[in-house]
Design goal:
The structure holds 2 protein chains of 2 kinds.
Chain A: H1 10-24, E1 30-31, E2 60-65, H2 69-83, E3 86-91, H3 97-107, E4 113-117, H4 121-126, H5 154-157, E5 166-172, E6 174-178, H6 179-184, H7 194-205, H8 222-230, H9 247-261, H10 273-279, E7 284-287, H11 289-298, E8 306-309, E9 319-328, H12 335-346, H13 348-358, E10 361-362, H14 365-368, H15 371-374, H16 377-386, E11 389-390, H17 398-415, H18 419-433
Parallel strand pairs in A: 2-3, 2-4, 9-11
Antiparallel strand pairs in A: 1-3, 4-9, 5-9, 5-10, 6-7, 6-8
Helix pairs in contact in A: 1-3, 2-13, 8-9, 9-17, 17-18
Chain B: H1 2-16, H2 24-51, H3 58-62, H4 73-80, H5 82-113, H6 119-133, H7 136-147, H8 153-160, H9 172-200, H10 204-212, H11 217-228, H12 230-245, H13 249-254, H14 265-275, H15 279-308
Helix pairs in contact in B: 2-15, 4-15, 5-9, 5-12, 5-14, 6-9, 9-12, 10-11, 12-15, 14-15
The chains are: A alpha/beta, B mainly alpha.
């Protein structure tokens, strides 16, 4: 993992490592042609919406992805076969992508295509790391904004009009609940409103010592924002700046803190949500599809005793739209090849194949509605929730603001800080960060 | 006698003079080390010092034209940031808890281990050294499980003897001790080896002489052995102090972000620099930390000198 940054200063370490890495260039990447053939049904090699021109044959496209490299290589095999482009896949761990980006920006030595977690999109854009491909979209109908889910349409992703990345996979938050425990305490069904949510948590928490109704992860930064959306508000003001001095945000904070006031959630910072859900200590959770995989893997015997549903509503039931985009690296010497690959990745067949291989939700509308995708009842719920999902604010200071929000909320619920005063300080911090 | 001394001195000077060509050799010998030190030690500090006077962030890295020289603004902002002071306070807490414990504990264990060369004691030596060579990721996983408040072994054992659970990593105060505990456990191994080496360098004659004078084992250790270890103790103290002022690994792997309870100064710098990409600001913070470490080390060495004089 990471080693300790030296005494002599991080800035210094950074520059030094930038120099070192600049000399190394891209390394340790595996090449696609050796990959096993796709097992996903997409190897029929039906050409994507616009077949890449023959001139691309023989060129190489380097891809940075946080996905499983072997599966990704298998996915792009049909593209490799039909276009003659070599796809060089380099797997980057989620933890390392920010350092990788920093080094690449400092050295000017990046890939051709990179996966971008939506939370890091503002950072990539601020770093000017992504090629503006607005004018190239006409030649690639699969990349047209209208083919993607509404939450990640071009005007949502880039309000200023310049398209620097296109959607790749989708992720959202839904309510996980234990049907068996609900039955046991006499709850008819999952909560659909905030009032029912609070009541269900209270009732579930009456089961005794160490048994809770719900769990709020102290690191779940999007949660208070989702609550704000559900209260009918937004954290972005009319001037495009983050504004938390709204009745809706206060309402969200009240909901957040109410669970702690009523002791219906655990307060331990190292509470493990998967273990808590499996043991029944936390029979309700708001989490993403990855939790479903974790439960299936760790507790297959729990099958049939849990379900997912869309988030409880106040004014709305809006959830977070997370996931990843793909973008062309600014300075790539194979922009055409990169765009051809993006075109292939956005095609409905590819997106369905990727869902089959990994369970990652498609961002392409047609793929999201494909029976192969919606057959799973859980996935049907994810798809329904994705229709009412929203991106977190795409501004560079968001990470700091969101850390400040979490710190303030934790200060209130864990250390008993005064709510009004803490929120006052938070508003000041948010204003300072956006100067 | 005076004359002899002078001539001897003069002779030695004249003897050295013909080797003026050879006087390059020392420089050649230290050259590579100095070069490495300058390139990887001094130069980065200078770069960080310059960067700390700018608003360099990720955007500036991409477009160097947008980087502005902002004077001491980063430092003003830093000193106004409560979180930085809190991080410094936490670091001080860790230093105060960790350094004396490590020096004392390592010395104690080393003296114990020095008692015998038997196979059992040799095995014990490896046992104490194991944490020092274990990867920090493995350590964090294992201790994370031990400390866990839901299914942790420590709380289970406490439960067996009828004691209530301890919020090892969730209580702001307890978590600092938990994190420091792991770091102490991890750091003692290497220092025990250093002390053991120093102990074995203590001449046997001294101990024998003390024994003849009627000193017991305790007396010998206090009056003979420990004073002879003072350079080893100084070395261990200085290096431990420096590494604890940069305390990073254990809170980084054990505490879930963004828990601030065990946020050390280095961790604060890491978040500013590598999570928020505020390179100018992080450079300023790291220079402040460097200044503090330098000051503490210099004071320590000075005090040592005064003691020796």
């Amino acid at each position: 993992m990471r080693t300790q940054p030296g005494i002599r200063g991080l800035g210094a370490t950074l520059i030094a490592s930038a120099l070192v890495f600049a000399a190394c260039g891209p390394s340790a990447s595996s090449t696609a042609p050796s990959a096993p053939a796709a097992t996903t049904g997409s190897e029929a090699s039906n050409a994507p919406s616009s077949a890449p021109s023959a001139s691309l044959s023989g060129t190489t496209v380097t891809v940075w992805t946080m996905e499983d490299a072997t599966k990704f290589e298998a996915l792009v095999q049909p593209f490799v076969d039909s276009s003659g482009v070599t796809v060089d896949v380099e797997a980057v761990p989620w933890d390392a992508i920010n350092e990788k980006l920093t080094t690449a920006v400092a050295s000017g030595d990046g890939p051709d295509v990179t996966q971008i977690g939506l939370s890091l999109l503002p950072t990539f854009q601020a770093a000017d790391a992504l090629e503006d491909v607005t004018d190239d979209l006409a030649a690639h109908p699969a990349l047209d904004s209208s083919t993607f889910l509404d939450a990640v349409s071009a005007d949502q992703l880039s309000p200023d009009g310049a398209v620097t990345s296109v959607p790749w996979v989708a992720d959202t938050r839904v309510l996980f609940y234990r049907t068996d425990i609900f039955q046991e305490v006499g709850l008819a069904g999952p909560p659909t409103t905030w009032a029912e949510f609070i009541a269900a948590a209270e009732q579930l928490a009456t089961r005794g010592e160490g048994q809770y109704g719900y769990y709020i992860p102290q690191w779940d930064a999007p949660l208070p924002i989702q609550f704000t959306w559900q209260a009918g508000g937004d954290v972005v003001g009319a001037d495009g700046k983050i504004d938390l001095d709204t009745p809706e945000f206060k309402k969200a904070v009240d909901l957040y803190t109410s669970f702690f006031e009523k002791n219906t959630v655990p307060t331990a910072s190292d509470f493990d949500q998967t273990a808590g859900f499996i043991s029944g200590a936390a029979p309700m959770l708001i989490s993403g599809p990855y939790l479903a995989s974790a439960i299936k893997e760790q507790a297959p015997e729990l099958d049939g005793k849990w379900a997912v549903t869309t988030l409880p509503k106040d004014v709305a039931g809006t959830a977070l739209f997370a996931g990843s985009n793909m973008g062309v690296w600014n300075g790539s010497d194979n922009v055409d090849g990169a765009l051809a690959l993006l075109d292939f990745l956005a095609a409905p067949e590819t997106q369905v194949a990727w869902f089959t291989a990994t369970g990652s939700l498609p961002t392409n509308k047609a793929a999201a509605a494909d029976p192969a995708v919606t057959a799973d009842p859980n996935v049907a719920v994810y798809a329904e929730q994705l229709a009412d999902a929203k991106l977190l604010p795409l501004i560079p200071q968001w990470d700091q603001i969101s850390a400040a929000i979490l710190a303030s909320l934790n200060e209130i619920v864990l250390n008993g800080a005064d709510k009004a005063a803490t929120l006052e300080t938070l508003n000041q911090t948010v204003a300072d960060l956006q100067q | 006698m005076n004359v002899t001394l002078t001539t001897r001195a003069a002779r030695s000077v004249t003897r050295r003079r013909p080797g003026s060509r050879g006087s390059l050799i020392p420089y050649l010998l230290v050259g590579p080390a100095v070069l490495l030190l300058v390139v990887f030690g001094v130069l980065p500090i200078v770069v960080a010092a310059v960067v700390s006077l700018t608003d360099l962030d990720i955007g500036g890295l991409g477009n160097p034209d947008t980087v502005r020289f902002i004077g001491l603004e980063n430092y003003q902002q830093l000193f106004a940031d409560e979180a930085f002071w809190e991080a410094l306070g936490n670091t001080a807490f860790f230093v105060v808890i960790g350094v004396p414990t490590i020096v004392g504990l390592s010395l104690l264990i080393a003296i114990g281990l020095d008692h015998s060369q038997s196979r059992f004691f040799r095995a014990l030596r490896s046992f104490y050294f194991l944490p020092a060579i274990t990867a920090i990721v493995a350590i964090s996983l294992i201790w994370g499980y031990l400390y866990n408040s839901q299914f942790g072994l420590l709380n289970y054992l406490l439960g067996v003897v009828g004691l209530g659970p301890v919020p090892w990593l969730s209580d702001p105060v307890v978590s600092r001790f938990s994190v420091a505990g792991v770091a102490i456990w991890r750091a003692t191994g290497l220092n025990i080896i250093i002390f053991l080496a120093a102990l074995q360098a203590v001449p046997r004659e001294y101990r024998e002489a003390a024994a003849i004078d009627g000193a017991g084992a305790w007396r010998t250790t206090i009056s003979i052995v420990i004073p002879l270890l003072r350079f080893a103790i100084l070395f261990v103290t200085v290096t431990t102090l420096i590494s604890w002022m940069q305390f990073f690994d254990e809170p980084f792997v054990l505490m879930k972000w963004p828990a601030n309870d065990a946020m050390s100064a280095s961790l604060y710098i890491y978040f500013q620099g590598f999570r928020f990409n505020e390179f100018g600001f992080a450079s300023a913070a790291s220079l402040v930390l460097l200044a503090i470490i330098l000051a503490v080390t210099v004071i320590q060495l000075r005090m040592r000198k005064l003691n020796d004089d």
